[in-house]
Amino acid sequence: MVDFGARLKELRLKAGLTQKQLASQVGVTKSVISFYELRERAPSPEVLIKLSNIFHVTTDFLLGIEKPPEKPLLDLEGLTEKDVKLVLVLIDTLRQKNARIKS
Fold first, then answer.
1. Most CB within 10 Å of its CB: which of 15, 18, 43, 78?
2. Nearest-CA neighbor of 37 among 76, 11, 72?
3. Per the CATH hierarchy, to which homologous superfamily does domain 4-62 belong?
4. Single pTM value for the model
C-alpha cells in the first residue's frame, strides 16, 4: 500500500512542481509539504481537497484507499462543449490512425 507522503511526492514530481511551488498553490509553507512527504504530518481535510483538485485525483487516491486508474483520465474542466467535441474527434482520429499502422 502506498502511503500519502510517497503518493504526494510522486504526483508533485510528475507535475514538475517543486515543494515551494506546490506549497504556494495549496496555501501552506514549503516545510509543510516536506512534512507531508516525510510522513511527519497529515494534511487537514481542506488541504487534502486542495491537493486532489491540483492533481485531478480523488482524495481516496491520495490516501492510498483507491488504486490509480489503469487508463489515464482526461481533465476536460474549463473546456466548452465545442472544445470537448473537438478533443473527442481528435482522439477518434488518432485511434483510427494507430489501427491502420498496426494493420
1. 43
2. 11
3. lambda repressor-like DNA-binding domains (1.10.260.40)
4. 0.67
